[in-house]
Structures are given as C-alpha cells and as structure tokens.
C-alpha cells in the first residue's frame, strides 16, 4: 500500500502519541526540577480538546518523574497564508495551531 504522507505519524494518532511519549521520555533527564513547557501543535484531524488531552497524557506518561499540570487549555491562532497560497488557491483552507502550556514539577525521591 502506498503512503499518502511522508510522515505516517501525522495520519495515525496512536502512532503519533507513542512517538511523543518517547520524545518526552528522552527530554526528562534534561529538565530542571521545575519547568514550564509550551507546545505549539496544529492538527486538521484532531480537535483542540483531543490535542490537549493527548499532550497532557503523553507528558505524564513520558515524564514519569514529574507531576504535570496544565497552565492553559490552549491558545489558538490562525496560520497565516503562505506564499504558495497565491499560486495554489486550493490551499486556502483556514488552518490553526494551538499553544498549550504545562508546568512540570519533579517528584521528591
């Protein structure tokens, strides 16, 4: 079966969430005992609430040494027109991205 996208994580949410869990786990040792992380993410197939829950869950699972607290439920902004939109009007569909902010506190050993 031919792939439609270069990155299948984008089209398969379960694989994408597994990828993010692994990414967060890799960052865990690099963080101070207290940190704030802002994640900018866009997605045309998942709702804002699905993205929020997915990020919150994967952060908690991937960074198991930390308590994860959401500081916002996400701030949404429009993705501005790209130059290619002038030449390919079919790309005119409005796209958004969301900024989610989380506080991470390392649990006492």
Descriptors:
about 110 residues, alpha+beta, four-stranded antiparallel beta sheet
Q: Brief overview, please?
A:
This protein is α+β, with helices and mostly antiparallel strands and 109 residues long. The chain has helices at residues 13-27, 48-62, 84-87, and strands at 34-42, 66-70, 75-78, 96-106.
Name the helix and strand elements from N-terminus to C-terminus, one letter apiece: HEHEEHE
Overall form: elongated
**What fraction of residues sit in β-strands?**
25-35%
Number of domains: 1
Determine the N-to-C terminus distance. 49 Å
Class based on secondary structure composition and strand pairing: alpha+beta
What average pLDDT do the residues reach?
A: 84
The counted number of beta strands is 4
* Most strands sheet: 4 strands, antiparallel
* Rg estimate, integer Å: 16 Å
Question: Helical stretch count?
Answer: 3
Measured as a percent range, the helix fraction is: 25-40%
How would you explain this protein's 3D organization?
13% of the residues are buried. The protein has three helices and four strands. The model has no long low-confidence stretch (mean pLDDT 84). The chain is 31% helix and 27% strand. Strands 1, 2, 3 and 4 form a four-stranded antiparallel beta sheet that branches. The protein is α+β, with helices and mostly antiparallel strands and 109 residues long. It has one domain.
